[in-house]
Amino acid sequence: MQQxxxxxxxxxxxxxxxxxxxxxxxxxxSNPATGEVxxxxxxxxxxxxxxxxxxxxNALKKWSAKSANERGTLMRNWFNLMIQHQDDLARILTLxxxxxxxxxxxxxxxxxxxxxxxxxxxxxxxxxxxxxxxGDKRIVVVKQPVxxxxxxxxxxxxxxxxxxxxxxxxAAGCTFVVRPATLTPLSALAxxxxxxxxxxxxxxxxxxxxxxxxxxxxxxxxxxxxxxFTFTGSTAIxxxxxxxCASTVKKxxxxxxxxxxxxxxxDADIDAAVEGAMASKYRNAGQTCVCTNxxxxxxxxxxxxxxxxxxxVASLTIGDGMTDGVQIGPMISSNAVDGVDKxxxxxxxxxxxxxxxxxxxxxxxxxxxxxxxxxxxxxxxIARDEIFGPVSPIIAFDDEDQVLEMANDCEVGLAxxxxxxxxxxxxxxxxxxEYGMVGINEAMISNAxxxxxxxxxSGSGREGSKYGLDDYLEIKYLCMxxxxx
Length: 485
Ligand code: NAP
What we know:
alpha/beta, Aldehyde Dehydrogenase, Chain A, domain 1, binds NADP nicotinamide-adenine-dinucleotide phosphate, globular, seven-stranded mixed β-sheet, Aldehyde Dehydrogenase, Chain A, domain 2
């Protein structure tokens, strides 16, 4: 923590209505690489969450009355500060979350890009005029902010999952309350400090940090003053929160779990496919919702791909994310390592073969070796479950129809990737994959200009792009009559 240059970014209180709120109890925030306690954070609960909702409600009228230009200028200030403090924000992120420092810097840039994007996109909330069915009427459509937005976010992207939501909400004229994951509150609080410096008014952006996920979650999903709830996290918790939102019929968007197929056809550029598989599988130690979960390789290139991929994986450097050159940091907890180890062990018992890795790493109890499994079938636990760790199961296939059936044979549909140079196949497979996002000869697909989101049990709604504002806007229809003389 001594490496943080601007120590005012290290906050340990919740940020409500433009001030920092202490509470009587505390919880520890630890470095997953070392187990060292980084700091203690004030443990907010139901009362503070209700206060934050009240602050957001009070701030709504003035914030939504500002012009999109005025809001955009403040958001642009926020973006500039994030970029100015990118190194410090990345240090905080690596220390509490574990991902390598270079990746953490990438996350800060990625999160900030949404703030920059929506600062501009808020100026393009266009309405509509519609020809009326009779001459004495006019039909006009306007778009208005939904109101107070509440959100709950996960630990795997402690900055970007908040930025993606808050940027669209603020640009639309909504006010915002977020409860970040208990394991990674510091990045969220640093964002609040910069929002204040940017001049974003009190009550517009609120952060409540506390361990009582269920209690605070009930406030954020059931409070009558909240118009919209947005969640990023597991499908299981997402389903529970959708149910809770039903009691007040909130507008809901959900960014939930994935099980991304990565398909390599016989006609693919194998070196490009290996590079793509490495990028989409091993960043954040495999702990992203769009991480490759199953690698399908056509039999004609199975040997070549497997050999080249194994060589690339074997070259990865594992260690503390703050150490230069490290590419694979710790997993978020030793429990997470247990979960991945069990998936590997159970699948090996069913016939999978360990080509590389396959066990915990000597770097510490939160580290798992980058692993490649072969002889995997689509019904093994390692293929059915979201792995959320640095393990690549390789599944062989014969033809296009067979691989499409296997790729789509799951309940979720977030991201999918495939490599092929046949233009006809590219269209058939892109259209046939039941996923919200498809990377074609490309594995890094997420950016502020593109609509991020899933289908099936991966959720609903989109973040980023011109579509990303829709989730924070209501359509209002105005019918003007009596126009005839
Ligand atoms: P999680 O267990 O669902 O937790 C996510 C958030 O929900 C955390 O803030 C957690 O709080 C909170 N939470 C847990 N139980 C709750 C309850 N009963 N009521 C209210 N809130 C509750 O998921 P995770 O393990 O942190 O994150 C990994 C999952 O997120 C994966 O499935 C991944 O695919 C998904 N994800 C999806 C996207 C996407 O854009 N689609 C992006 C990133 C991650 P605590 O921290 O206190 O437990």
